[in-house]
């Protein structure tokens, strides 16, 4: 039926493309994608031949009226991003908002999302959570954003925080978080669903020291425990100190 369907694609493991995702992509009048060089091989691998239209940050606003007109003419469009769930730190929000406002049917085939996968593997409270996406790359803007989050926490926000981060900035970002947010449990999820998948858990400080000494590679999600976990982490450390003292005294 006419309208727009958001279709999740794998975040590394090609086996994670849902059968229904393939069916929807095959039946679509056109597939909107961030980069045809990424989506064309994925579709070719599954023998799907469909016309691809680029939709990215730079053309989303300009392309939207044309895409709405195609839906109004009875077409069914699918939207994918390079990896994972469209709109999640990826293009599509403005098109979805416009399609809803124009009364078109908007649906989704759910699937991989690095943020949710990292959250579920982090060992940190799964809800409430705040998905932040990428922090600004520049130090001053990043410090300001972390300061705003800390202020929101002082005003009562208590949520597990989820960030996307580039590997070359990881150690620096962890250190900035330790400074601005205080001692917290955290987890770094790397290369999810891929061969070298790894989840490293520890305090922000310990993780910052680890990645300063062992620079990270690959794709990364950073999960930070809520402020309430500070007390727990402190208590756990205090407990450990006591056990150590008792063991040493024995
Ligand atoms: N739409 C995607 C999703 O649903 O997860 C996210 C797209 S965003 C442009 C790309 C960022 O997501 C990467 O820089 C990384 O932070 C995170 N990411 C994507 N795939 C990942 C993976 N396999 N393991 C860890 N993080 C990943």
From TrEMBL:
Broad EC category: transferase
Keyword Phosphoprotein: no
Coiled coil residues, start to end: none
EC number, UniProt record: 2.1.1.198
Cellular component GO terms held in the UniProt record: cytoplasm
Catalyzed chemical reaction(s): cytidine(1402) in 16S rRNA + S-adenosyl-L-methionine = 2'-O-methylcytidine(1402) in 16S rRNA + S-adenosyl-L-homocysteine + H(+)
Domain Tetrapyrrole methylase: residue ranges: 4-207
Localization, UniProt: Cytoplasm
One Gene Ontology term of the molecular function aspect: rRNA (cytosine-2'-O-)-methyltransferase activity
Keyword flag Ligase: no
Top-level division of the source organism's lineage: Bacteria
Keywords of this entry: Cytoplasm, Methyltransferase, rRNA processing, S-adenosyl-L-methionine, Transferase
Family of this protein: Belongs to the methyltransferase superfamily. RsmI family.
Function: Catalyzes the 2'-O-methylation of the ribose of cytidine 1402 (C1402) in 16S rRNA.
UniProt-recorded name of the protein: Ribosomal RNA small subunit methyltransferase I
Species classification: Bacteria, Pseudomonadati, Pseudomonadota, Alphaproteobacteria, Acetobacterales
Residue range from the parent sequence: 32 to 281 of 314
